[in-house]
Amino acid sequence: MARAAGRRYGLASPVSLAFLAAVCLTAFGVREAQADFRVCNATQNLVGVGIGYRAKAGWVTEGWWHIEGSTCKTLIEGPLSSRFYYLYAEDAERGGRWDGPINMCVAEKEFKIAGVNDCFARGYQRAGFQEYDTGEQASWMVQLTDEPADDGEAAVTGQTNP
Questions:
Q1: Does residue 1 fall inside a structural domain?
Q2: What angle do CA 72, 76, 79 make, to 5 degrees?
Q3: Is the pLDDT reported for residue 24 higher than 60?
């Protein structure tokens, strides 16, 4: 998999988070609160998403979830078991990406990879993932947008189980 080149996308600012949450509730339907890690794609393009996390046996990266424009997908179902999660996404149509400074392994096709070291030697590619501190909440959502964040912060929401 070649790393996406071109325009780099940002994640919405916290100020616009309330507005985006209202749009999501209206556009994607209100659902009962449940524990999970969701990614919402507020762009009009298909996006491929990979996630990384620390499991009992060590580091794991998984992908690709294909998320159509203006939709959400659950990447991890149930209460979150880690405090930190890592996300990497690519715009399949325009070639932009949502990335960060934490290097983890990815593959060209669907993958679940144990470990984050020696990616190339093991036949994988390496991508920069963005860290999300869920604060040990049971649920978390990341909103992917076309607009860069004003303050560099990601558009994320976390909610505890009611």
A1: no
A2: 115
A3: no
Entry pTM: 0.72
The answer to whether position 44 is within a domain reads yes
Tokens 């070639």 found at: 95
What residues does 3 pair with on adjacent strands? none
Q: Is the residue at 155 inside a domain?
A: no
Domain that holds residue 67: 14-149
Say if residue 120 is exposed, middle or buried (CB neighbours under 10 Å; 0-12, 13-18, 19+): exposed
- What confidence score (pLDDT) does residue 26 get? 43
Answer yes or no: is 18 within a domain.
Answer: yes
Averaged pLDDT score across all residues of the chain: 79
8 Å CB contact between 12 and 153 = no
Contact at 8 Å (CB) between 120 and 148?
no
Total domain count, the chain: 1
Phi/psi-derived region of residue 151, left when phi > 0, alpha when psi is between -120 and 50, beta in every other case: alpha
Q: How far from 28 is each of 25, 98, 125, CA to CA, in Å?
A: 6, 22, 33
3 state SS of 18: helix
Binned at pLDDT 50, 70 and 90, residue 33 comes out as: low
CA distance 104 to 128: 6
pLDDT for res 25? 45
> Helix H segments across the chain?
14-28
